Amino acid sequence: MSTVTAQEATHHEAHGDAHHEHHHHETFITKYVFSQDHKTIAKQFLVTGIIWAFIGGLFSVIFRLQLADPNATYPFLEDLLGHWAKGGKLQPEFYYALVTMHGTILVFFVLTAGLSGTFANFLIPLQIGARDMASPMLNMLSYWFFFLASVIMMSSLFVQTGPASGGWTIYPPLSALGEASSGSKIGMDLWLVSMAMFIVSSLLGGLNYITTILNMRTKGMSMTRMPLTIWALFFTAVLGVLSFPVLLSGAILLLFDRNLGTSFYLSDIVVAGKIMPNEGGSAILFQHLFWFLGHPEVYIILLPAMGMSSEILSVNSRKPIFGYMAMVGSLFAITILAFLVWAHHMFVTGLNPFLGSVFVLLTLLIAVPSAIKVFNWLTTLWKGNIRFTPGMLFAIGFVSLFISGGLTGIFLGNSALDIHLHDTYFVIAHFHIVMGVASFFGMFAGVYHWYPKMFGRYLNNTLAYIHFWVTIVGAYLIFWPMHYEGLAGMPRRYYDFSNWESFKMFSGLNQFISIVALVVFATQLLFIINFFYSIWKGRKVTKQNPWEANTLEWTTPIRPGHGNWPGEIPEVHRWPYDYAKDGKDFIPQNVPFGADESKDH
Amino acid sequence: MNEFYFIAIVAMVFVVIFQIAKASEYVSVLKGEEKTRKQNNKINGFLLISFLVLGMIGVWYCNDILYGRTLFPQGAASEHGQKIDLMLYITIAVTGVVFFITQVLLFWFAFKYQEKEGKKAFYFPHNNKLELLWTTVPAIFLTILVVFGLKYWFKMTGDAPKDAILVEITGHQFAWDMRYPGKDGKLGKKNYKLYNQPSGNTLAVDFNDEESWDDLHTTEMHLPVNKNVKLVINAMDVIHDVGLSHFRMKMDAVPGIPTTMWFKPIYTTEEMKKRTGNPNFVYEISCDQMCGKGHFSMRGVIVVESEEDYNKWLASQKPEYFTLFPEKDPSKQVQAVDTTASTSKPMAQVMPNNP
Could you confirm whether domain B165-330+344-350 is CATH 2.60.40.420? Predict the structure, then answer.
């Protein structure tokens, strides 16, 4: 293995040098549009992700307006949405379209592509000491398939019958029958085709990440010397490669049911007075296929955030991450378990109770590696010398949210309790905190931490601190009270609660939540302004290693070119967490072992 | 116009915040980055500990306001529900303790160990004993929760007691329909291809099956108190879900795949009005699975009443067979003798697909 790595390294040495001569003639197109430089591709993913996050967030603000006061009219909505908001009142069909697209956009386009796409591309070669990805060409295609998926999904917003509106989980028969919902007409086909493109993008990316991590580590970078970010991104890619194809097959069968008259998911249906000929299919089959991706997807979103937070917590505590091997082990355990728990989304579908009990067991088992991670993060902070950079604050916020949202998972994973809480606001609160906001915090932590490496400039600190404090306070104010709504059985995906004797007492609370959501959304705009302004006008980075971190990306020039290191790729002599060792504040990975250095870690 | 002002004001606020942020950056460069960083560190350390304290007060305050609106104070209206509430309390207690300890440690450590001049961090890369401790302790607590949970789970999802009253509930866009088996205690067969044959047969009942002749079709569900009830759940078009929050029960309605659930209501609607202090209280059936544009309005009503009232209500309902085939209705029939000879004839005419 080591000789192979060494050969690789020297091979890339030569290759890298050749690269530099070639790329003197880069045009605008090859440098910024069809770039094969992993750093540029990462930025493309990030910027596209930010645009999607803005749209997805805006959708949530619009449907929160409806929930705040179901009888209010907002004339500007009619200007914006036309017949979907006749007289300034959002139509139910479009409310559901907004809910569906909010979920689809944020889960797939932002927290999968925007998060993994950005940081796997950016960090893998830089942190393992490679000049680029194993296949820069596939990497470029990965972005452009994502772009294509984005264009198709975006176009579905403008078709006359509206975009998909059956929820982001697109359960058939609702999503299979155009008669059942206007969003299940052409909008649904576009959704499926877009997702197919998205899955292609994700697979191209994932295969590349795995290959790169396994084959292209620099000399001395054994697997157990990799930063936890890389471990997390590695497992994320494995999850994606093994589970996304299942969704693809599910989506293709759904396309067949919709357009070719097959009956994979359909049986015994009378819709809108029309007796359908389909017999023998099972609507539940789709749910199995969907959640076989859908649950790993949760960890595809969460693991990169965990990895980056681990790295950032360690750097800014000036202490090694506590229990490195336990952290890797728990990532591994989560990856395995992620494939074995999908049916906990289906406890009330009429699932065989015995099968259900197995899934309860495996689901609650995930709490063990999760607990290990939390306590290890806490111990990493203990007796540190902590610097509250914006990235560090977001990493701390991530841990807090992960605890809060993770604990409610223990309620939902227990099938008996899930009977009561399933599909209520309790679920909304749970997954928004643990998967949505927590992963966003991981992503923000990553952006604030690696922005200097990406653009050679800093983000504005004051704006960053405002962004953090408003967002964490707002996130708790929005989602904490929702647990109570869920305990009262308030169902999710309701357009209007005012006719329900059981749920209408929450109208004041719904209004409060909407106002906070508006403020939090506005604060995210502040981040977006900060992000784009700082690319050109931010304070310049003058230090090669501004956070005094150990990992290899900080050994590159402040603005690394294609190939990352102008000279040789540094050789690695130690793990990346030698902080506070032997009285030294930090010892970068490329520093050889001192003669009198203590060996243990 | 209002929107214009709103946008203008928001834009102004943005500009002001942005200018302040820019100015503070210039100041920090003038003061020296190191010094600014230390100041920021102190401020954020203080904010973190304040967030913890205010957050915990907020959690308490939130509970104070909202506890009354959850279903806990009125109690569960079914036996299963009482067990679920008990389990909820246990889980809230366990997770609550973990939540409190971990959040306090997180923010307290962050505050306590913030960067200080001349301080050195403690090199502490791992400790097997500690790691073993927080692997086993959560595992033990989870085992307890799982054992409790599964015990109840198997009871609730197990077979309904034999004496249970049978009611069929069918969801369609966007309402619920009930079917009672009538005196024979058996529901007639269904065949979805018989939908609306004859006109009005919205549940697609096969009236060739004699067991269907005494079945009742209603839009409201009536149940006797303190009796086990078994629901057979169907859907006509897309997936719906029978959500009974007061009974803490829920089950999907899947087209083509009938599902069941059972429970025992322990309070009548009238009793619940007193328990909740809400004179308008009704047991509501909410659709808990996204089913299209009218999902939010798919509301059903359950009336739980004394057995006597329940029987009275049952007696007042007319079998659907007689509504759809008025000529068969004995109460209206004078010429009954002629038609009984050819019972299945009208059915043969309306069933072209009949195999």
Answer: yes
